[in-house]
Sequence to fold (432 residues):
Amino acid sequence: MQLYASLPLNLQALSVNHVFALELLACSAIVVKLLVMRRRGMRTLEPFPGPPAHWLLGHVKEFHQDGHDLEKIMKWSEQYPLAFPLWFGPTLSILIIHHPSYVKTILTTTEPKDDYAYKFFIPWLVLIIVSVIYFSVFQDKWDVYAKSEESFELFQHVSLMTLDSIMKCVFSLNSNCQTDSGTNPYIQAVYDLCHLVNVRFRVFPYHSKAIFHLSPHGYKFRKATRIAHNHTVEVIRKRKEVLKIEKEQGIVKNKRYMDFLDILLSARDEHQQGLSDEDIRAEVDTFMFEGHDTTASGMSWIFYNLASNPEHQEKCREEILQALDRKKTQWTDLNKIPYTTMCIKESLRLCPPVPAISRKLTKPLTFFDGRTVPESCIIGINIYGIHMNTTVWENPYVCVFDPLRFLPENVAKRSPHAFVPFSAGPRFVEET
Fold:
């Protein structure tokens, strides 16, 4: 009887031991798989020496989001002048390139954006002429700050202005973002999404869709995504209502041009099938973000750099006043402000709106020095590093603001791929 009485306990203990052994075996298999994948990746990038990396975390622990991460990358760029690998976790490696000759090799191809980093944007995301009306609102707000004679953060204000402008010029809607009280929910959602994508990329466990979904950051990401999507759906809904009314009443709207949303709604394939609501929303989401966020970033840095260099700011002001002479601005007037154009380019060199982009190779690629990377390798184009490359630019550091770098005779001495704030090649501008 004692033997039978003790049997269930022994079976229970045996079951627990088996479960523990299976869990240990599964964990060991995962670790072995990660090590094998890491060794394979290390062999792939063996021709490209780089900074030492932790076997599990890679270089993630080197980035602290303290405002000095770009400085660290630039330090490595000096140590490894053409290219070097960065590891994010034990298996994800990106070959960072920052020399015009290397950049030319990849940007002149039609290789796609990498499907690893960009996939973090997928739940959210499947140069604009600023409206004079919205700039006047923007200018009125700035007059108040100017009279206070105190420093202030302008990016939020520029973001609201560019969103107002893109809504009006591209979607024909009066959004009044600048005059809304409080924080604009769409703008805040864009900020949150950008931050959360960055967090997910840096935290290796978050590369797992399931783990990220269950995390607090995943919850915030889904909430911000809903806000961004609802904003886009509302834009599309209002336009469809307008088009429906026009069609019912037989109104022919005289337009000087079709805006972006008109083109999407009227697009038809060879079978006369239009885009689905989901397709239109994805296109609008992408255009809304790319159109206003990067423009706002570029404009903010231009204003900052001019304010920090009043002698250049005054020259730009005099040139613009003389060229425009209080008349209505035309495209041809842009040719009359060469010094202002050079200042804009110098600001974009120092502070590119998108500091890096990436590609995933569909076939082996050989660089000018004979080194080759295989299919599936992810290439990171360090735009900031290219613009600060000491082999290309004289005194690029310490934020030396020198618009004369872009005099025609100086530009002719450099590679066309030494200045790529909006990418280059087949994906020029669309990239950023």
